[in-house]
Amino acid sequence: MRQALSGKLSGVAVRPAVKRTSLRKQLIYFAFVSPALLLFTLIIVLPFFRAILFSFQDWDGISSNIEWAGWDNYITLFHDKAFLKSFLFTLKYVAVGTVLVNIAGFFLAFAMNFALKSKNVLRTVYFMPHVIGPLIIGFIWQFIFTQVFPNLADLTGWGVFQKSWLALPNYAFWALIIVNVWYTAGYLMVIYIAALQGVSPDLLEAAEIDGANSWQRLWFMVLPLVRPAITICLFLAITNGFKVFDLNFALTKGGPFGSTESLALQIYQDAFSNNQYTLASTKAIVFFVVLASITLIQVFVMKRKEVEM
Amino acid sequence: MNKLRAVLVQTPLWIYFVISVYPLVWMISYSLKNNDEIFVTNPFGFPTHFRIENYIAAWSQFNIPRYFINSFIVSSVSTLLIIVLALMFSFAIARMRWKFRESVRLYMTIGMFMPLQVIMIPLAILVRDFHLTNTYGALIVPYVAIGLPFSCLIFYGFMKSIPGELEESACMDGANIYRMFLQIIVPVVTPAIATVAIFQFLSNWNEFMLAYILISDEAMKTLPLGLLFFQGQYSTDWGGMGAVMTIASLPMVIVYLFFSEQVENAMTVGSAVKG
């Protein structure tokens, strides 16, 4: 730093000295960054390239000979019914989940404006599930669906509670969605609250005087003003939806009949239960490409609209 | 009119409050009941007898203390390492002028968008090849690497905002680069360290997928794995299961109740950065 400073101040005169010590400085800087850089490269970057490599190979994970497979794995995927099923399920889960979680999160945050006294208590409780973690949440809700619902059915006689939610494919999907919304809404709410605090009350008041009703104010003023937060929350909901594993695992384990098996869960099963390392890697790469394209498009489109605003 | 509107808005909020809190209250409540009370005599009400024996049984007959210690060691050691490595990294990137710093920073940032699902297979093989399977290292090393990109970004953002005069004056006083790092920069970024510490500790404490892949030895299991094991083995002992889940989640809930604002900030700050 001292060298950098003096070099900048006195220019040409000290150049030889700067050059010699600057190599030393470079080494010191490198020493500062290298532990993090090495670990990151070894654990994140190299495995990523190895996963790409695996997707073109044929290997069971144990034997010493790894065969080259070319595009065979990718071709297999298109005929793999379980994969297509899981792919569709994940897309549906992400689409429905993203919309509902964001609506719930936004309206919780929006309604919070009117609940001045109880704001902190409500906010703390809404966020709480996110601190506990998806595995425990999944187990709790599994118990609710299998044990509490029958009790509620006896109590109320309502048909919704009489169904065994986790054993019927259609219901199992919605069970996952319900728990997902319950788990994530409070989290997105915190982001939306922060964004809503940036909306000036004066501006809304002025619009009210000009005759805009509540819905018009919400639709034409508040929503455009919190658009950056919407971009973030959509991004988070999409990525978290695609990556769902713990919740899926604890709640349905992919059942009934593989109807709720997320891609993440299937990749896990293929690799570590069936020893199909290379096929699972192919699925992982496809998963990565799809997730990356969807989120890139989403962020790009939303950002462009922000600029237009 | 305003009052009516307040009631109209408040009612759904309180209904959602009940929906939010009920499963959690109810987990604690059934950890204090036996099966008969859970299913037949008292499925909805609060426990009448406060059966602490569920907790005593979970704690003494099963490996819960072991899981708890494992979770604590793995979470705290990896959090500590993340903080040290990320601080060093961000210091050299944010406060020093050198040739490759921008490219190094970009390289690290990409890591934030890497889904674990994509790298988990080669990672499992790597851990096996390094003979780390069923050691603390099997979890600590990946957790540190996964936590780094996010933490570096937080520290980088924070360090960038420190005015340069701070170091210039330290320079005049003859401080070298190490003293500058340890005695000037690190104390200034303490709030960011707290944020990163909370975030990383929490996510490592709750991490399940990697632990499930990399740990099979009973003695090395963390709490989420222990929970799964317990659920498989004693699936009919719901009171015991409730007790185990309460034990596993209570530390984080207590931390959250005391520092709710910090925890919320820590867990959502990543989103702000990512967007």
Automatic annotation (TrEMBL), chain A:
Q: Would you identify the family this protein belongs to, as annotated?
A: Belongs to the binding-protein-dependent transport system permease family.
According to its UniProt entry, this protein's organism is Paenibacillus rhizophilus
Which terms does the UniProt entry file under GO BP? Answer: transmembrane transport
Q: Which UniProt keywords apply?
A: Cell membrane, Membrane, Transmembrane, Transmembrane helix, Transport
* Residue runs in coiled coils: none
Spell out the protein name for this chain.
Answer: Sugar ABC transporter permease
Compartments it resides in: Cell membrane
Top-level division of the source organism's lineage: Bacteria
CDD domains the UniProt entry points to: TM_PBP2
For the ABC transmembrane type-1 domain, which residue ranges apply?
A: 87-298
TrEMBL record, chain B:
Q: Which PROSITE patterns match?
A: ABC_TM1 (PS50928)
Q: Where in the cell is it found?
A: Cell membrane
Tell me the InterPro entries matching this sequence. MetI-like, MetI-like_sf
The record places domain ABC transmembrane type-1 at 68-259
Q: Which GO terms describe its cellular component?
A: plasma membrane
Q: Which domain of life is it from?
A: Bacteria
Q: Keywords on this record?
A: Cell membrane, Membrane, Transmembrane, Transmembrane helix, Transport
| Any single Pfam family the record assigns to this protein | BPD_transp_1
CDD domains, sorted: TM_PBP2
| PANTHER family, sorted | ABC TRANSPORTER PERMEASE PROTEIN MG189-RELATED-RELATED, SN-GLYCEROL-3-PHOSPHATE TRANSPORT SYSTEM PERMEASE PROTEIN UGPE
Record-stated family: Belongs to the binding-protein-dependent transport system permease family.
Q: What is this protein called?
A: Carbohydrate ABC transporter permease
